[in-house]
Amino acid sequence: MIIVGKIFRIADLQPVDTRVNRLTIKVSMEISILGSAGSEAPGQNSPAFLVDEWLLLDGGTVGLALERLARITHVLLTHAHLDHIKGIPFLLDNLITMNTSCNLQILSGKEVISDLERHIFNNRIWPDFSRIPDPRQPVLSYRRLSTRKPEVIGNYRVFASRVNHTVPAYGYLVEEASGASLLYTGDTGPTDAIWKRMRGHDVKALIVEVSFPDELISHALKTGHLCPSLLETELGKMPKVPEKIYISHLKAPFRARIEAELARIPHVSLELLEEGKSFRVA
Ligand SMILES: [Zn+2]
Ligand SMILES: [Zn+2]
């Protein structure tokens, strides 16, 4: 059902049971919101979305109980800005300390992986976990994604697309066996390739950023982000607007203004994501 100009809070929805048996044929994916804000404030943390308890979309906030941490095997990273990666060093530290023999694979475009290797896991800022505890069986591995072909990750096909940010950045279409898919833009200003990627796919849900209110449109454009009026233009580029559109990456001081401006966009159903909640894509 499309509710014109209406914003739901994800808190109004019932949390879903996140237990999942990966051997069963899946008919839906479950997304737990670990963080969804564009800045840090009490109750508003950096973006990280946990799919089916094992696949992280971005790693800005990974403050989970240790037994849940140990189930995470893959991180699909949009870009290397600190607010999207800062939970990952501590996730790895916990995995190695627990001696789980887990391997965490970080997947992204080659420039993003290169930034992590050179600037984070470089034995100065944080250990090079790609050689620990043993270079032949490390706790961290990397996988460089291409925008030209999909990758199989667990029970999903993942299509990477470049988006328009101040550093190399990617968005992802995550498709399950039934064809239902989730599109996650990460940080982006006005863009095109990722919307073209929707063609021919059954995109059930979109997570898209809106960082600033309309008054700061020039700042949004300069920093590679969206405001509500820019989002409205982006919606017009989509081959088909998904029924569910979830909004992330709001800058905390502008949250109320952004929410009011989003409510004025006609003909779409928008939900502001709230951390600690879950939703289902089916
Ligand atoms: Zn960014
Ligand atoms: Zn960001």
Secondary-structure blueprint of this entry?
Blueprint: E1 6-9, E2 29-35, E3 48-51, E4 55-57, H1 66-69, E5 74-76, H2 82-85, H3 88-97, E6 104-108, H4 110-119, E7 140-144, E8 151-153, E9 156-162, E10 170-175, E11 180-184, H5 193-197, E12 202-209, H6 217-223, H7 228-237, E13 244-248, H8 255-262, E14 269-272, E15 278-281
Parallel strand pairs: 1-14, 4-5, 5-6, 6-7, 11-12, 12-13, 13-14
Antiparallel strand pairs: 2-3, 2-15, 3-4, 8-9, 9-10, 10-11
Bound molecules: zinc ion (2 copies).
Architecture overview:
This protein has 282 residues and is an alpha/beta fold. The protein has a single domain, classed as Ribonuclease Z/Hydroxyacylglutathione hydrolase-like (Metallo-beta-lactamase, Chain A, 4-Layer Sandwich), CATH 3.60.15.10. It is built from eight helices and 15 strands.
Give me some keywords for this one:
single chain, about 280 residues, alpha/beta, Metallo-beta-lactamase, Chain A, 8-stranded mixed sheet, 7-stranded mixed sheet, 15 strands, disordered N terminus, binds zinc ion
* Ligand set: zinc ion
Q: Number of DSSP strands?
A: 15
Largest sheet: 8 strands, mixed
The strand order across the widest sheet is: 1-14-13-12-11-10-9-8
Distance between the termini: 15 Å
Radius of gyration: 18 Å
Would you identify the regions where 5 or more consecutive residues have pLDDT less than 50?
Answer: 1-24
> What is the ordering of alpha helices and beta strands?
EEEEHEHHEHEEEEEHEHHEHEE
In CATH terms, what is the fold-level topology? Metallo-beta-lactamase, Chain A
Q: How many structural domains does the protein architecture include?
A: 1
